Request: fold
Amino acid sequence: MVSTAYLPLVRYSRLCAVGRPKDDPHEPHAGTQDRQARHQYVSCPSSRLLLTVIVHTDISVGESGDRLTRASKVLEQLTGQTPVTSKARYTVRTFGIRRNEKIAVHVTIRGPKAEEILERGLKVKEYELRKRNFSETGNFGFGVQEHIDLGARYDPGIGIFGMDFYVVMGRPGARVARRKQKKARIGFGHRVKKDDTMSWFKQRFDGIILVSTDAISSRLCLIISLRNNRIAP
Reply:
């Protein structure tokens, strides 16, 4: 042990280094430890994705009356909740829609029931979604052509309806941007992005993300045009 009485001018940093064991070559480097710390931050509970408003199931029939009532029965049969009607915002004479006319029904599902219905909807799609199904804010949606594919019993008096699924993703702490008192902005690193939801979809449901045919055709056209420009004198 080195005494401070004989080393009055030795700096504290050098004094602390005296007697320190040499770095073990088998121990991880400081950069590796930093990367591990960043990985732990990414995998912390506050950064995990949650299904905030998981399934917003919507059936748009475009008219009021008996057809809208039957669509409401379909949603109530699937979810066990009472659907809410949606009104038209504008008058569209081509389709015979008047302003403030009830033309659609929807229901919002949360919790374990929402995960169950989402699982049934993705099973109909064979766990395959396109990249354009995901928005830049981390949400995604898809459609089902026949509600009987979700496991509902066919009723000749009701018929067959298609429906849309809208899934809203979020992280713990997102409520600070919506609460009434002491609102705050969500940090950029804590916001849900498109790539985050796509990775979650692949891991959670072992899903497959398909490339749209429009993107493939545009790439082929670009490659052909570049080749023609090279061949041209």
Q: What stands out?
A: Residues 4-23, 37-41 have pLDDT under 50 and may be disordered. Helices lie at 12-17, 30-42, 66-79, 112-124, 194-205, 213-231. Strands lie at 50-53, 55-60, 84-87, 102-109, 128-130, 140-144, 163-170, 208-210.
